[in-house]
């Protein structure tokens, strides 16, 4: 079974060697590492090119530079389309993988050919203070157990990182029609994977996720008015695409109803915040079971009141 790793880089010179080391030293080597640089203005390209030459990793490892900046969402999407492996992993430019990450996850996917998506858990550390404890939004047992992800409020919100995911190429081909520019690959795979009924989460911390001032998405807070309303608006659009996928798959009505209500809830929240449609605050009460956190209803009100 051929393994591909897709990495998206942008001004990653500071940390990228540690990430590359952790991939090179895996107990099961990738058959392909495709690195797509998104018009870095630092020397990321030079560092990666020299690294590949130093360790004689070509042509299995190779880097290409986009002619224009795409943003990390579309850069990862393009990389996934170009990857040639049966299983595709995603790598950020600034994390550290545990040595058996590829081995453990590939072994599980080989043992369970029906699985479409497998994610793992991760630990986080602050680059400025590695010994400072990091509180996780969703504490995990790190005991090697495996959970089937189900279409419910607890599981449907993104619960892992793209760098923790391994997806089958056949599933990627199946969901090719169901995408939208700017939709982050991890959120898309997580949601569509759950809807396929074959998405699993391995409770082992196989990635050391570095937290620093320039992380692309991790730790993003949506308390600001514009950012919060835009996030909810986008989620309502993504829900439409997920619903199209479920319809095409002939999914049960209860699953389609869940996604319809999820999308309606997100649209109401976006309008409440951006347009101060105060009646939406009361309409949202009906959709509280679809909120990730019930107290977010109050945060929405606070955001709407901002100038």
Structural features, described:
The protein has 307 residues and is α/β, with parallel strands linked by helices. The chain has 2 domains: 3-211, Spore Coat Polysaccharide Biosynthesis Protein SpsA, Chain A (Alpha-Beta Complex), CATH 3.90.550; 225-305, no CATH class. 41% of the residues lie in helices and 18% in strands. It is built from 11 helices and 9 strands. Strands 1, 2, 3, 4, 5, 6, 7, 8 and 9 form a 9-stranded mixed beta sheet that branches. It is globular, with a radius of gyration of 20 Å. The mean pLDDT is 95.
Provide a compact summary of the structure:
The protein is built from eleven helices and nine strands.
Descriptors for this entry?
alpha/beta, globular, 2 domains, single chain, 9-stranded mixed beta sheet, Spore Coat Polysaccharide Biosynthesis Protein SpsA, Chain A, 307 residues, 41% helix
Helix count from the secondary structure assignment: 11
**Can you write the helix and strand succession as a string?**
EHEHEHEEHEEHEHHEHHHH
Strand content: 15-25%
Mean of all residue-level pLDDT scores: 95
Q: Superfamily at the CATH H level of the largest domain?
A: Spore Coat Polysaccharide Biosynthesis Protein SpsA, Chain A
**What's the helical proportion of residues?**
40-55%
CATH architecture level-2 label of the largest domain: Alpha-Beta Complex
What structural class do the secondary elements suggest?
alpha/beta
Termini, distance in Å? 55 Å
Low-pLDDT windows of residues: none
Radius of gyration: 20 Å
CATH topology of the largest domain: Spore Coat Polysaccharide Biosynthesis Protein SpsA, Chain A
Number of separate strands: 9
CATH domain class of the largest domain: Alpha Beta
Tell me, briefly, the overall form: globular
Q: Main beta sheet, described?
A: 9 strands, mixed
Tell me the count of domains: 2
